[in-house]
């Protein structure tokens, strides 16, 4: 019997979940926000309770201390020695990491080096790792990479049509993201369908504020929509997704606002997508309300969002030369029945279908008719559980 904690550290946040392993029972979960700012907030949820406190937390090390103090204060643990493993989500593993790894000085240095691929994420992930190493140096510490699941992609899928030296010298290639989510829901879908994962062709659609679609053939990622960075793929909450790259030099030549890479990056990552088209919000709930009220820009944003999703799903049917099931997951995928219905409505010729009586808010499992050629499922994602499982696996290695 042991306790394992899964950590997802952001630049000013620390999300966590504590498990009793190997039972995989969630004992508590929490979120520390506004790290490094005044009025930081730490929230702990356990036993149908939610407790929050506001205080100033200067860095991730202090955040970890507060997390552990809360676990003790609320009687969730009686001694820190009960926590025998910690798993850290890391966004970019580059070509170094094809699977999760035990934390060493070398591994930590590589995580920090790969900040060039994920400048908003890897430095924060590394800060969380350092904080736990300082406070609980003797527990099993594991890094779990968003990109690892996608390292099974063939070269034809991950290479860009650029001169070879840019791949060899600068490692410019498709890496993907949300790998733990795609891996988890593919495995769960196989259980629901009652078939071995190795025999299935699946398309997993992680649709939240960030969106990524993955072709999973025999349990392996063979293509995915996010690329060198999480900007590529379908349109997202505030991100453009795929656009003509010639737009960038065109803007830089004609608008003095865009005289450096930071300004362009801000436009593409933070001002575009649903927010940019609607002019109002990046939240799908607000977009749907705008559609309902007849707002033109919200309606256009919604239709563009659906259009891009359909195109990626359709191309991945071609990549695998067929598909057995489509899985919706993440915030929008799990909760927006209108989005699911709209996506599938444009794919019926390929054998996709949805049962409107099953496609309701809170739906889980198969939502397609029994005679549907391609099954459509809703599977809630659980990235933290994937992290905890990998910690247990490496404990026993």
UniProtKB/TrEMBL annotation:
Alphabetized, the UniProt keywords read:
ATP-binding, Cytoplasm, Kinase, Magnesium, Metal-binding, Nucleotide-binding, Transferase
Domain of life of the source: Bacteria
Give the binding site residues for ATP: 15, 206-210, 283-285, 331-335
Cofactor comment: Mg(2+). Can also accept Mn(2+).
Give residues annotated as binding Mg(2+).
8, 383
Q: Tell me where it resides.
A: Cytoplasm
Q: Which InterPro entries match?
A: Ac/propionate_kinase, Aliphatic_acid_kin_short-chain, Aliphatic_acid_kinase_CS, ATPase_NBD
* The protein's enzyme class: transferase
- A GO MF term: acetate kinase activity
Its recorded reaction(s) are:
acetate + ATP = acetyl phosphate + ADP
EC numbers, comma separated: 2.7.2.1
| Record-listed substrate binding positions | 89
Q: Please name the pathway.
A: Metabolic intermediate biosynthesis; acetyl-CoA biosynthesis; acetyl-CoA from acetate: step 1/2
Q: Which cofactor does it need?
A: Mg(2+); Mn(2+)
Residues flagged as site, Transition state stabilizer: 178, 239
Supply the PANTHER family for this chain: ACETATE KINASE, ACETATE KINASE-RELATED
Subunit info here reads: Homodimer.
Name recorded for this polypeptide: Acetate kinase
Q: Which organism is it from?
A: Streptococcus porcorum
